[in-house]
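Pipeline run #58 for the internal structure catalog. This entry was flagged by the ingest filter as a single-chain record with no existing model, so it goes straight to prediction. Upstream metadata was stripped on purpose; only the residue string is passed forward. Reviewer on rotation: M.T. Logging verbosity set to normal.
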Amino acid sequence: MEKLWSPVLVAGLLCLLTCDSRAENYTVTGEMVSHIRYELQHQVTPGEGMQQMSLSFVVPQTFHSPTYVQEIKDVYLLLTPEPQEKTTRTDGRGNRIVVATWKKIPPFVEVKLSCNAFNHTVLKTLATEAPFPLEKIAPAGLDYLQPTEQVQSAHPRLRALAARLTAEVKTEFDAVQRIISWVVDHLHYTNPPLRHDALYALESGKGNCQNYSHLSAALLRAVGIPVRIVNGLTLNQPFDVSWQKGILTFKMGQGRHSWIEVWFPDQGWVPCDPQNTQLFVSNRFLRVEVGVDNNETKNDGLLRWAQSRAGQIKPQLQETIRATFQNDKVQVAGERETYGPKNILLSPNVRAQFQQLALKPLSPPPRMIPEAEKKAFRFDVPFVFGNLEFPEDLDFAFPRAVHAAAPGEFEMPRNFLVETAEYVTTMLTQYAQAVLLPKPLSLAKVGIALQNFGGEGDLWLEIRGDNAGKPGTTLAVSELMNLRQLSSKPGYRWVDFDFSQDKPLLMPGNYWIALGFSGSPIVNWFYTYGKPVGPADGTRYKNIFADDWSGALNYEFNYRLVGSTIR
C-alpha cells in the first residue's frame, strides 16, 4: 500500500499503547528561516593546587539534510588570558575541536565563542524507497551500527523489543516511525536521571534527552539502521503552529540538548528529536558535535585539569548561552491526524510503504458520584497527585559535576540540565494546567513549582472545571499569596496555595489549575518536556482579555494536589 502519510503511523501502535488514548499526531507543512547570532561564554575560577588546565570547544559547522540546513559563518573565539598552548584538529567524526591549555594557572579565565547561524527548516513532502532490512550500508554508517556503553544495542531485551516493533515491516521508514513512536509514548522526561544509557531508559521508563537519544539509537541499531548521536543546543524562542482549532505553541529551554540522525540510503543523514518531534528538528536547534554516544560527544565545553592532593577546592565554571534572532520567519500549519501516538508529535508528509492499524477507542469518562452519596464517604487517606518530578532547589548557573579521570586528574564535562520554565506573570497572558484526577479528593492545598525573580504583587490559584477540553467555570479560589512570602534564592521549589478554608471536594474527572496575579510580580513556573501525567493539549494560555483558551503548549507544568481521599 502506498500513500502520502505522516511518519507517526498507526502501524507504530501495534505494541505501542498500554492504555486507551487518542492520537496526537500533527502533519505539518511550511518552513522556518532564521538568522541567529550565537555566543557561548565560559567563566572559570580555578581551584587551589591546580598545575595545568585545559578547555575544549567544538566549532559548529555547516550541515545539510532533507529537512534541516545549518550554515555557519563568522566564527570567533576569544580566550582571556591567552593560553600557553592552543591546538585545532578535526576528529574521525568530522568534529572540529579546539583545545586551549594553561600551564600557568591564572586567577580567572574567560572564553567567548560566537558565530552567525543561518538555519532553515523545510517541511515538504519527502519520498523514500529504502527497504527494510537495509540491503547495503555505506562505509560512513558502519560505525553507527555498533553497540556502545550507553547504546547497548546488542542487549537481548533491546534486541527483542526492536524485533517485535518491526515485525513484518518492509521499509526503513516504517521501522523508524514504529520505534520512535514507541519511545515517545513509553519514556517520561525527568532531569537529572540516575543514568543516561539506553537500558536504564528501557527499565525505568524515564530519562532526559540523552536517554531518549540512546534508547532510540539502541533499538534502531539493533535492527541494522545506522544512527548517530548529535549534541547541540536548543534555543528558547517559541514558534506557533496554526491548526483547525487554534494555536499550538512549541518551546524548549535554552541549553544543551541531545538528538539523533538516522541514515537513509536515498536521503542521507536525517535529523530526528525523539524527545520533542519526529523526522525533523526546528530552526531553534544548533548542531555542534556528533558521535556514537554521549560518552564520545563530550568535547564541547569540557574542562580538564591536574591538581595536587593538597588542593581541596575544585574550580568553578559558569556557562552562559546567548542567542539573538536577527531575523526569524515561521510559516507552519498543522493538521491533526486520526492516528499516531498519544503524545504530541510534529511530522512532515512522507511518501512510503506502510501498514495502517486502528487506534484503540477512547476510554469512557470516570463515573461521577451523585451529590447524595458524597456524605457517606470518609476522606481520611492522605493523597498527593500531580506532575511531581523536577530539579528542586537547583541553581542552574552552577550545575556541573566533577569526575576523576585518573589519579590527580579531573574533568568537568557539560551537562544537559536545562532550565525549562515559563514567565507566567505577564500583564497580558494567563496560564492553566489540566488535571485528570483519578480519585475523589478533599483538597487542602495546590503546589506549583515556582521561582521568584522579584517585583511586587499577589498570586492565587483557581480550580476550574473542564469545558470541552479547555478551562471552564471557576470552582474554588485559593488564599492570596503575597510575593514577599516566596523565597528569592535561586532555584525552583514548591509554592503551596491554601484551599483549606473552603475544603473543596473534587470527584474524579477533568479539572484545571489556573494561575492568577495582580501587581507586577516576576515569577517563572517550571515545566516538564512532554506530557508525563495529563493530556497532550492539557497546558493552555490566553490573553487575559480573551474568553477562549485557544493557545495550547507542548509541555506540562509541574504541579501537585494535596489532600485526602477515601479508603
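catalog note: The first helix runs from residue 139 to 142.
catalog note: The first strand starts at residue 2 and ends at 5.
status: ready for reviewer M.T.
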